[in-house]
Write a structure and sequence with these properties.
- By secondary structure, this protein is an alpha/beta fold.
- It folds into two domains: 195 residues, 2-enoyl-CoA Hydratase, Chain A, domain 1 (Alpha-Beta Complex); 47 residues, Lyase 2-enoyl-coa Hydratase, Chain  A, domain 2 (Orthogonal Bundle).
- A six-stranded mixed β-sheet has the order 1-2-3-5-7-10, with helices on both faces.
- A hairpin with a 2-residue loop joins strand 1 and strand 2.
- The longest helix is centred in the N-terminal third of the chain and has 20 residues.
- The two termini are 22 Å apart.
- The relative contact order is 0.11.
- It binds acetoacetyl-coenzyme A (CAA).
- The site of acetoacetyl-coenzyme A has 24 residues, from helix 2, helix 3, strand 6 and helix 4.
């Protein structure tokens, strides 16, 4: 299937989603969000795909935010619906069991920073720029930024970034824990693929259960969280991968996980 505003590339066990509106710095309008949603459904249902990388087309931008040209005349109810659409699509990334890696190749502002934050692991090019500049436009982050930024970098840093609209470069984003790794732009995609490959060699169901345990655990108290963990740990023992993984260890060989 072809999309107007994104490109989906599949190779072996890896899917790569390129947000593809380089002339508008890959800004997110309604159609682009719907394309991302369709890609997420596709990736979720494709048993050959084990990991997804999300990146931006072109050299300059990952995503420079929600599309300001699209938004500028929205009514209150249209704006709320546009916010909810982005929130729902980004939440799909978090709820999908397959790991999603953001390869941040340039500007990740507003909705772009929010998209990156909804991914599981963030790798950034040295030249990337991050921020939530919404207050300078008379609005607030609307795709989960007020919630995820505080969870990722702490309340004080999140409030300062959001209240000032300041942008930060990759080294500072790395320092505050917004990104996991920093690479020269020319190496970013290779490194993202390397990481995706490493994850794809692990037991797929166990990776998915881990994502669920960490993600859902962050929403609840520790006792509920560890309760979910032991349930999921138990469920692993109903899988072929657990049998193969532990048998391979005892036979001193590499496991051959068959689950898709
Ligand atoms: N929406 C729509 N168009 C955008 C855009 C956006 N978020 N960001 C960039 N563009 C467009 C520009 O309008 C310009 O189009 P034209 O060539 O037709 O004029 C084109 O992309 C290139 O942009 P610039 O000429 O501005 O490029 P630059 O290199 O000088 O600056 C930039 C790059 C710093 C990213 C700058 O474009 C910018 O500040 N963009 C807006 C960033 C922003 O405020 N994002 C938050 C949006 S609100 C939001 O995201 C709300 C939410 O949470 C839901």
């Amino acid at each position: 299937m072809t999309y107007e505003n994104v490109i989906l590339d599949k190779e072996d066990n890896l899917a790569t989603l390129y947000i593809n509106r380089p002339k508008a710095m890959n800004a997110l309008n309604r159609e682009t969000l719907l394309d991302i949603k369709a890609v997420l459904m596709d990736v979720k249902n494709d048993s050959d795909v084990k990991t997804l990388i999300i990146t931006g087309s072109g050299e300059k931008a990952f995503v420079a935010g929600a599309d300001i040209a699209y938004m500028h005349n929205l009514s209150v109810s249209e704006a709320r619906a546009f916010s909810q659409l982005g929130q729902d699509v980004f939440r799909m990334i978090e709820l999908m069991e397959k790991p999603v890696i953001a390869a941040i190749n340039g500007f990740a502002l507003g909705g772009g920073c929010e998209l990156a934050m909804a991914c599981d692991i963030r790798l950034a090019a040295e030249h990337a720029v991050f921020g939530q500049p919404e207050v300078g436009l008379g609005v607030i982050p609307g795709y989960g930024g007020t919630q995820r930024l505080a969870r990722l970098v702490g309340e004080g840093r999140a409030k300062e970034l959001i209240f000032t609209g300041d942008t930060i470069k990759t080294p500072e984003a790395y320092r505050i824990g917004l990104v996991n790794h920093v690479y020269p732009g020319s190496e970013l995609m290779d490194q993202a693929k390397k990481l995706a490959g490493k994850i794809a060699r692990q037991a797929p169901l166990a990776v998915g259960y881990s994502k669920t345990a960490v993600g859902k655990g962050l929403q609840v108290d520790i006792d509920t969280g560890i309760g979910m963990e032991s349930d999921l740990f138990g469920m692993c023992f109903a899988t072929e991968d657990q049998k193969e993984g532990m048998k391979a260890f005892m036979e001193k060989r590499k496991p051959d996980f068959k689950t898709k």
